[in-house]
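Input record (Table S2, row 174):
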Amino acid sequence: MTTELQILRMGDVRLYQVAKPVTDFNDQQLQDTLDMLIEFVRDKGYSGIAAPQIGISQRFVIYCVKPSARYPDAEPQPLTVLINPIITPLSDTQVLSYESCLSLPGLLGKVPRYQHIRVNAFDRHGQALEFTAQDRHAMVVQHEIDHLDGILYPARLKQSQDMGFIEEMLTQNC
Ligand code: NI
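Output record (nickel (II) ion complex):
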């Protein structure tokens, strides 16, 4: 079975709002939405999605990390749900890495992100989570959590030419 979802694209005002914290972890609608998003991300092989991208202004995201052609050494992370997440950088070091986003189809950006972060959040049952993330894992988490604050990756670019269509970016930057 394939889940089809309408993903909001850059320019939709709902992508620029600060999402509200989840207060009721037992809410059936929340749990159903999480199931739907997990199935969607698995089916399509995506690396993550945040609630505001489907028009839900609440603070939850889903992500996973898989090694890719570009990042073959990325340490895999299983599909993870983060609710009301908070990030603390563990050093000032930032690294540039390639990011794409379901809300900016066909585009790719080279975006600075903290290399090493601590993440505090809740899982889907309301249990507190705390872990550290580095490199690709840290990048994916920062990208998804930015969505909760109404931030799309173009706002993070150091210079505008660090973003473009996938084909052009990969041809010129490899
Ligand atoms: Ni995104």
